[in-house]
Design a protein that fits this description.
Number of helices: 12
Largest sheet: 6 strands, parallel
CATH superfamily of the largest domain: Response regulator
Keywords: DNA-binding, Transcription, Transcription regulation
InterPro entries: HTH_LacI (IPR000843), Lambda_DNA-bd_dom_sf (IPR010982), Peripla_BP/Lac1_sug-bd_dom (IPR001761), Peripla_BP_I (IPR028082)
Structural class: alpha/beta
CATH architecture of the largest domain: 3-Layer(aba) Sandwich
Organism: Mucilaginibacter yixingensis
Distance between the termini: 71 Å
Radius of gyration: 25 Å
Order of helices and strands: HHHHEHEHEHEEHEHEHEHEEHEE
Protein name: LacI family transcriptional regulator
GO molecular function: DNA-binding transcription factor activity; transcription cis-regulatory region binding
């Protein structure tokens, strides 16, 4: 026997109302009496009515869905951002469509097109390491669909952004290494295509300058975030005639991989070389030794991005505000730089 799914016709017949009245009551239309709205909602719940979101979107021109595009799920960083974003979206009764790009530009383009086909009301985006062309994201703005960037942002598109002060955080991380007595500090940097890589490298350089330490280009290597290459670069550093006694890594996964290689080479951390990461990845506290890192408020980053997006969704594009929210970071000192009892 075929089961019957409750429709607005069933609710209308039960309450002796028109279909249009029931539909307006279910979508929160202001021209419906409060008593009628309450009766419709109560019966809808009793009859286990499931709204047809596609039909509602045709009426309201809203799908009540936002998209999130992230570069990868390898680390805990972006999953934590998404958790915060989902929590905030639920407050406005919004669904979330999530996609990850495996650090591939073409996949990012495909995911953006998927979001467009699903008629999302807005998107929040963090770029892949390969992204240098932004036409697929400009399309959203041309169609009046708001976009908010976070963490890995596009500086060429005028849109709200949620970031941390990467320069200042990197400066403090390197200065911490210097204050522990390290004088020859290497930097395993990220791809120069990413603004966060450039800002963190600038912070590294200026911290050395402030403390009158030389800038040795041989101690700076930018890489494509492919973990398999970390062993090559760290071995190169440690095989130098005058190897580094400190390392500032672009992120925690890089730093933790580097520590494994350093230990395999028979070096002590932090006695022979101190190591600092960036992002406070969940695993960083459990590494051996535990990793000194820069903590980023990832949950807050997701929530803030969605708040900015929600503020734009119901407004004319001419009224969109191009805000840049800069969140605070914190240097978390652990055993990879200061061996604690």
């Amino acid at each position: 026997m075929k089961s019957h799914q409750t429709t607005i016709i069933d609710i209308a017949r039960e309450l002796n109302l028109s279909k249009s009245t029931v539909s307006r009551a279910l979508t929160g239309h202001p021209n419906v009496k409060q008593q009628t709205r309450e009766a419709v909602l109560a019966l809808a719940e009793k009859m286990e009515y499931q709204r047809n979101q596609m039909s509602i979107s045709l009426i309201t021109n809203k799908t009540k869905t936002i998209g999130i595009i992230v570069p990868e799920f390898v680390t805990s960083f972006f999953s934590q951002v998404i958790i915060g974003a989902q929590e905030e979206a639920r407050k406005s009764d919004y669904n979330v469509l999530i996609s990850q790009c495996n650090e591939d530009y073409n996949t990012e383009v495909d995911n953006a097109q998927l979001m467009m086909r699903n008629r999302v009301d807005g998107i929040i985006v963090s770029l892949t390491k390969e992204t240098k062309n932004f036409d697929h994201l400009r399309t959203f703005q041309r169609r009046g669909i708001p976009i908010v960037f976070f963490n890995r942002v596009c500086e060429e598109i005028m849109a709200p952004k949620v970031i941390v002060n990467d320069y200042d955080a990197a400066f403090k991380a390197v200065e911490h290494l210097i204050k522990t007595g390290k004088k020859r500090i290497a930097h395993l940097a990220g791809p120069p295509s990413l603004a966060i890589s450039r800002k963190r490298q600038n912070g590294y350089i200026d911290a050395l300058k402030k403390h009158n330490l030389p800038i040795d280009e041989d101690l700076i290597i930018g890489y494509d975030l492919n973990m398999s290459k970390v062993k090559i670069y760290i071995k190169h550093f440690m095989d130098m005639d005058n190897p580094p006694d400190g390392l500032f890594a672009i992120n925690d996964p890089t730093a933790m991989e580097a520590m494994q290689v350093i230990k395999q080479l028979g070096k002590r951390i932090p006695e022979d070389i101190g190591v600092v990461g960036f992002s406070n990845d969940y695993a960083s506290q459990f590494a051996e030794p535990s990793l000194t890192t820069v903590a980023v408020p990832v949950n807050e980053m997701g929530k803030t991005a969605v708040k900015l997006l929600m503020d734009m969704i119901d407004k004319d594009p001419a009224d969109w505000k191009l805000l840049v929210k800069v969140l605070d970071t914190e240097l978390i000192v652990r055993n990879s730089t200061v061996r604690k009892a």
